[in-house]
Amino acid sequence: MFSRVLVANRGEIALRVIRTCRRLGIETVAVYSEADRGAVYLRLADHRYCIGPPEVARSYLKIESIIAAAEVADVEAIHPGYGFLAENARFADVCRSCQIAFVGPPVEALSLLGDKVKAKALAKKAGVPVVPGSDGPVADDKAALELAHKIGYPVLIKAAAGGGGRGMRAVHNDASLVTALAAARAEAQIAFGASAVYIEKLIERAHHVEIQILADAHGNVIYLGERDCTVQRRHQKLIEETPSPVLTPKLREAMGRAAVRLVKEAGYVNAGTVEFLVDKDLNFYFIEVNSRIQVEHPVTEMATGLDIVEEQLRIASGEPLRYRQKDVNPTGHVIECRINAEDPDAGFAPRPGRIVTFFPPAGDGIRIDTHVHSGYEVPPQYDSLVAKLIVRGADRMDAIRRMRGALDEFILDGIPSTIPFHRRVLDHPAFLKGEHYTKFVDEELME
């Protein structure tokens, strides 16, 4: 196991990684921008280095500064968390060239799975169902129109590189396809430095279900069950749960085995998530791989009792997996609500500012992952996530009732938050029946 690890991230995920490292007796090195100077979680790190001004391009995305801090601190490994450089193949390659372990997949797997077109081709090779669509980036508008006619509207335009909903457009007819293509290409170029887009059939009223996997460098791969991430807005996840309300035991096993085949084909190592869409007839289709730890990983941890960050560190240090598939037995029902500094009634617009009072809920079956506190100033430069509220119940209705109570207890004064929105979701008949879908928030709840 490593003796010293640098955490190349901020906020709640930095605190999350630091806590596991401390439990394992690993020294931690925290890096921070000037906007995060004085953050409480920095006190828990053994060493701290400022890496630049608030702008992410000059701090958390600046590879040279992070590597310099790692070399000065003489670390053995870097944990990238999620976001920022977590799926950046160049960063992983620089770590490797500097003989610093990257707590994530190999450079080759990152490069392969980071390109959605290549990932889709790999899925086909592994015998994993994929959404009908283009085999690669569409060459021009004419080719896009021909493909749309072939597979039928509605279709979805997606950026070949990157994710998070950027460069993504739903299209229902010829008239809007060309305009949407131009907009998607421009957005993809700005977000990912690559304008290539491809087209898929839009699966309507689908559930978004992801499979958490762990893979070591010795050829062992297991899946830790699923997370249903269907409650989302503009492709940004808001609520996650396990088990999914729509999966049968047979379908769960089929999706888990498909995820394992895919990551083995990619030569994947470490933690990752294989994402699928499940249609109304319970057919599932591969959409992408998130080659990092997910924001919603506590859902799986609460259900399985495993510490995914610990497993990441053990795998990155060369250890074989300590578990086999038969050892994974998720129990109960777990739900996570992302508490964001956003105003749902203003289109989920970010609302940074000073938190006057922060008093999170507590009690049996409740977990809170957060880095904020009363008096904390939410900076405008970064993601609006301020806390993740996770509850575990005996079954789905028990978990929903526990989450309602936890949200009622949650005091967050000074800025708008998504707490009232989550209450509305949990009371909605479609969610209660498991009949919600990926456009549920946009098409029904916000209306």
Describe the model.
This protein is of the alpha+beta class and 447 residues long. The protein has three domains: 4-103, 3-Layer(aba) Sandwich (Rossmann fold); 132-201, Dna Ligase, domain 1, CATH 3.30.1490; 207-445, 2-Layer Sandwich (D-amino Acid Aminotransferase, Chain A, domain 1). Helices cover 33% and strands 26% of the residues. It is built from 14 helices and 22 strands. The chain has helices at 11-23, 63-73, 89-97, 107-114, 116-125, 141-151, 174-192, 249-266, 297-304, 308-316, 396-409, 419-427, 429-432, 440-445, and strands at residues 4-7, 27-33, 47-52, 77-79, 101-102, 155-159, 169-171, 197-201, 207-215, 221-233, 236-242, 270-278, 284-290, 333-340, 342-343, 349-350, 353-354, 357-359, 366-370, 377-378, 385-393, 411-413. The strands form six sheets. The protein has an eight-stranded antiparallel sheet, sandwiched between helices. A five-stranded parallel sheet has the order 3-2-1-4-5. β10 (221-233) and β11 (236-242) form a beta hairpin. The longest helix has 19 residues, at 174-192. The N and C termini lie far apart (52 Å).
